Amino acid sequence: MQKIFGAKSSPPKKALLLGAGFVVKPTLTYLSEKGVEVTVACRGIESAQKLCKDVKGAKAISLDVQDAEALDTEVSKADVTISLIPYTFHPLVIKSAIRKKKDVVTTSYISPSMQELEKDIQEAGITVMNEIGLDPGIDHLYAVKTINEVQKAGGKIKGFLSYCGGLPAPEASANPLGYKFSWSARGMLLALGNTARFYEDGKTKEIPGHDLMSVAKPYTTGYTGFAFVAYPNRDSTPFKEKYQIPEASTIVRGTLRYGGFPEFIRCIVDMDFLSQSTHDFLKPSSDPIPWKEATKKILNATSSSEQDLTWAVSSKHNFKNTDEKSRILAGLRWIGLFSSEPIIPRSTPLDTLCATLEKKMAYEEGERDLVFLQHKFEIEHKDGKHETRTSTLCEYGDPKGYSAMAKLVGIPCGVAVMACLEGKLGKGLLAPYTPEICDPLRDELRE
Known about the structure:
This protein is of the alpha/beta class. It is 36% helix and 21% strand. Strand 4, helix 4 and strand 5 form a beta-alpha-beta unit. The protein is globular.
């Protein structure tokens, strides 16, 4: 019998949050403010403890997700597991959730290995919600909104472009790439090697990774203060079906960078600095060689003098004009590739270069980042009239708080977790491709 002075309150919901990356804290804080008790699990408990500091209801533990028994134990204690670890580990987490009949939320694309678990997910009667960060995530929420509005009014989407860039704010972009690293430089550079597929004027186009930078072109946003270039990213062709836009003859999802980025990347590709081949002279050592010696060996130059190194660069890369040559060589000099500065040896040209880029192109105190996301819809209305409609998100980070990227990945994830805990998402392997899923999430984000 309940006491007359108040109904018995339900116990707080519990979440297991896997990961230690920069998006974890916004997700954790959001859930804490909603009254969710969150256990943060990292391989090293120090990382988890740092994240949990001063967060109400948060607890830190050490956990190796490759230890199935330990993972099952922690998954069973929570109502939902949030997987913010590298996507290759998501299947391990989902399998544990299937065994324990618990829900999962990730911000990653649904991979083939995750897709293979769909039948088991359905049989377990659980929710596995994915693609709910920024890109993918917020991009889906607002693409689906406009597509649904147009189609409900009897119109058709004849073309769809979606470009997103996570960049330093303009005042913090003064380096050769116009880029700064808040995550792995290796991941960003390797992504440039992925083949891109998309629809253009009714035809399927495929661009091999090694040619990707050659198709980058200036992108007009309607905001003249931004000098962006854009290039296609991954495989855009499935979105004709996912977004239910069968009449669209052009569908491109891609990446935004500042002008000059593609030319610089093409040069370091031609220099073989993105090679993953192991070299003895790049192996970790207590006495690492200077950069100019490493550059000489990678380029097979006649000497390590700057004159011979720049000649070797010119022999491998075809500069468009003298101005471009001067700008790119100045950039290589800025990075230190012609200098006596010791390398940070990482065995391969790619990893050794990344170690230096992460050191020289890290965000400094007081600097802020920028996220720019824009959709362009080519619309044919019911009456035959045509319209180009844009949907734009421009967000700056707070140097004293969250970066724009952390906030725009972490908060949507938190919103999806709450929707999952409240039973609003349905069951199965899900992503935000329908109004039924997108509308409530977008409404909550707007709040």
